[in-house]
Amino acid sequence: MRVICTTLLVSMLLISFKGFSQEADNAQNEIDEHIWKPFITSYSTLDHEVFNSIHSDDLRRINSREIRTAKPYKEKNTAWFTKAKKDGYKQSIAFNFDKRIVTRDQAFETGYYKVSITKPNGDQSDHYARFHVMLRKENGKWKITQDWDSNILNGERVTAEDFLKAGGMKSPKSTSVSTIDYVKILDNKSAEALHYYENNWKLLRKKATEHGFIKSYQLLKVDNNENYDLLLITEYATQGQYDAKEDNFKKLMENYMKNGVDLLNDIQPNAFRKNVAYDTVKTL
């Protein structure tokens, strides 16, 4: 009987531990989706609205000089992102975690980050720091409630070596979404088709990139394929960018195509091109 009871107890503990472990894994996956993926993407695309949205309105932002509350911190983010985008700065951030502790609705995570800045003149620099964050689930979404960082640790400047030797839990990858249009040129009207896509499709995507609405775009010519002649690829950095594409492109058309479509001559698009297929793909 004692053996049976002991075996049953061990089995119950294992089941309980497995259930807790699965719950923790699910919570960390949620944290990656709610916080770290949009953090990395919005930081690099200079999207202050998304970046600010992952921080709680009850935030305390702490560094070596001061403690900020949410409002002034978010206002500073908005001002810098707007200026950086206007002036032509580029920036990116990567994280290495060494501790990730999560409960049902709270989490504590620590590690190191690397920020890369490219100035408008092309000068590039990397900066490293140690960070601690407290997270809380608010209305079903994880938010950053406390954020501390410093580039000085125990009197020494944080280095690339510190960043690289952190516990091995790398930044979560942000899953991008791409759309692919397959276009057939009709009746050998290549000049009309290429003018149309260069001066309309590419124009809108150039502006979309500048506004942080998309990550990248490509207009590709395909040789020796009887089904289609052009590939139009638009990459969205996140699912959120993809979901907002119709509203965003509508805004761009209203601002940058007020005089309508730019055509080479009187021949209309339906006479020189046909969309024969369409795909949506995601990075693995």
Summary keywords:
284 residues; alpha+beta; Nuclear Transport Factor 2, Chain: A; Alpha-Beta Plaits; 2 domains; seven-stranded mixed sheet; 41% helix
Commentary on this structure:
- With 284 residues, this protein is of the alpha+beta class.
- The protein has two domains: 20-170, Nuclear Transport Factor 2, Chain: A, CATH 3.10.450; 177-282, Alpha-Beta Plaits, CATH 3.30.70.
- It has eight helices and 13 strands.
- The protein has helices spanning 2-45, 48-53, 70-87, 160-165, 190-210, 239-243, 245-256, 269-272, and strands spanning 55-62, 67-69, 90-102, 106-118, 124-138, 141-150, 152-153, 156-157, 169-170, 177-185, 216-221, 230-236, 273-282.
- Strands 2-1-6-5-4-3-9 form a seven-stranded mixed beta sheet. Strands 11-12-10-13 form a four-stranded antiparallel beta sheet.
- Helix 5 packs across helix 7 (245-256).
- It starts with a helix and ends with a strand.
- Mean pLDDT is 88; it is low at 13-21.
Point out poorly predicted stretches: 13-21
Distance between the termini: 51 Å
- Based on secondary structure, the structural category is alpha+beta
Q: What do we call the CATH topology of the largest domain?
A: Nuclear Transport Factor 2, Chain: A
- How many helices does DSSP assign? 8
Overall pLDDT? 88
Query: Tally of extended strands?
Result: 13
DSSP helix fraction: 40-55%
Major β-sheet strand ordering: 2-1-6-5-4-3-9
Tally of discrete structural domains:
2
Beta-strand residue percentage: 35-45%
List the helices and strands and how they pair.
Blueprint: H1 2-45, H2 48-53, E1 55-62, E2 67-69, H3 70-87, E3 90-102, E4 106-118, E5 124-138, E6 141-150, E7 152-153, E8 156-157, H4 160-165, E9 169-170, E10 177-185, H5 190-210, E11 216-221, E12 230-236, H6 239-243, H7 245-256, H8 269-272, E13 273-282
Parallel strand pairs: 1-6
Antiparallel strand pairs: 1-2, 3-4, 3-9, 4-5, 5-6, 7-8, 10-12, 10-13, 11-12
Helix pairs in contact: 5-7
